[in-house]
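Predict structure. Input: Type 4 fimbrial subunit protein, 132 residues.
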Amino acid sequence: FTLIELMIVIAIIAILATIAVPSYQNYTKKAAISELLQAAAPYRAEVELCIYNTNSTTNCNAGSHGIRADAAASKKYLKAITVKAGVITVTGQGSLEGISYTLTASGNAAQGVSWTVNCGAQSDIFPAGFCA
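Output follows.
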C-alpha cells in the first residue's frame, strides 16, 4: 500500500469512529438505566402498602411504616434512593451521573394508588412511555 492509501483508510476509520462512539455511549446509558428502574420497585410496593395502611402519603417516609431506609451507593449505577411523603427519588452515578427521576404517589386506600413519573430534562434516555 502507498502512504496515501493508508491515510485514506485511517481517515475513513476516524470518521466512522466519530459517528459510532457517541451512539455507543448513549446505548450503554440506556442499558444501565434498567438498574435504576429496578431499584425503585421494592420502594414503590412499600409506599403503596403505607398508603393503604395510613390512608395518606404524608407519613410514607423512608424508615417508617414498613418502608426501608434510604439507599446510598449500593449498586454500580445507583447513587441514592430517597422516600419522603410518598415521593421516591432515584439518583444515578458513574455513567449515569446527573440522571434522576421521581415517582410520586397519589391516592388513598379507597381510591387506590396512582403514580406520576418525572424524569426531568434527560427523559430521552428512559424507555419510551416511562416518563410522564
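The chain has one domain: 3-125.
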